[in-house]
């Protein structure tokens, strides 16, 4: 259906300029365009744009700052590659971004990484930073000084398999990773924020997909924390992931032509997930995460 990475990440804020400081002051992102309610960021003219949409202070939060990884609904984090995570955590704190956990060490395939999730304390939006400790960065990933372009976006699923089927069967995406439930062998810090003492009892399962197999950017990840037996239950934010919500609520594909857009419209003939939007088509994953398809450069 589509053969490219998403073009935009849409984030609602209470104050665009304040929110943008993490990206402009630490990440080296530039301001591409700005008007009264919208501010567009991009890293060195490459990769997905970050569209900030300023909302009133009574706007609903897609996922509030205290939301946990076992509470499903909407997008958990935007994911970027980084260097020297300790300095990023230190410099981000005065800007209102605090770590969900201490920096965690993980192994994924041949890669050994340090990972941390920073939460914006006003909006609840999260950015997840990955620092490779061993394997080099992919050649296709643009170089950066502190952190780079978005390459993945994670959503919290109530049922990982249902979300995976939505992307692979309804949208026709390719599988990047589809794993069995993972359970730690010993207590450890996890970027998901599962309490350390429960990491040997609470498994999680993950899948990663992309429009085309093995894409380096434009991925979608879905995580299901299976913590009910250990008492990890809570709220469900699936119905709070709207265009007017504060936090990360959607990504956008800008189609290259009217023909390409009409092809998508024909493919998405599914009343369960698809709906119209003023400038295109919006589909919604089972846990609320929004995906737009538009045929022009309008927000």
Largest sheet: 9 strands, mixed
Quaternary state, please? Answer: single chain
Radius of gyration: 18 Å
**Outline:** globular
User: How many strands?
Assistant: 17
Question: First CA to last CA: what distance?
Answer: 21 Å
In the CATH hierarchy, what is the class of the domain at 58-238?
A: Alpha Beta
Number of helices: 4
Q: Give the strand content.
A: 35-45%
Q: Based on the structure given, which CATH architecture of the domain at 58-238 is correct?
A: Roll
Low-confidence stretches: none
Q: Could you say which structural class the secondary elements and strand pairing correspond to?
A: mainly beta
SSE order in H/E notation? EHEEEEHEEEEEHEEEEHEEE
Helix content: 10-25%
CATH superfamily of the domain at 58-238: 2,3-Dihydroxybiphenyl 1,2-Dioxygenase, domain 1
Mean pLDDT: 93
What is the CATH fold-level name of the domain at 58-238? 2,3-Dihydroxybiphenyl 1,2-Dioxygenase, domain 1
Write up this protein.
This protein is mainly β and 299 residues long. The chain has a domain of 181 residues: Roll (2,3-Dihydroxybiphenyl 1,2-Dioxygenase, domain 1), CATH 3.10.180. The protein is built from 4 helices and 17 strands. The strands form 2 sheets. Strands 5, 6, 7, 8, 9, 10, 11, 12 and 13 form a 9-stranded mixed beta sheet that branches. The protein has an 8-stranded mixed beta sheet with strand order 2-3-4-1-14-17-16-15. Strand 3 and strand 4 form a beta hairpin. It is globular and about 55 Å long.
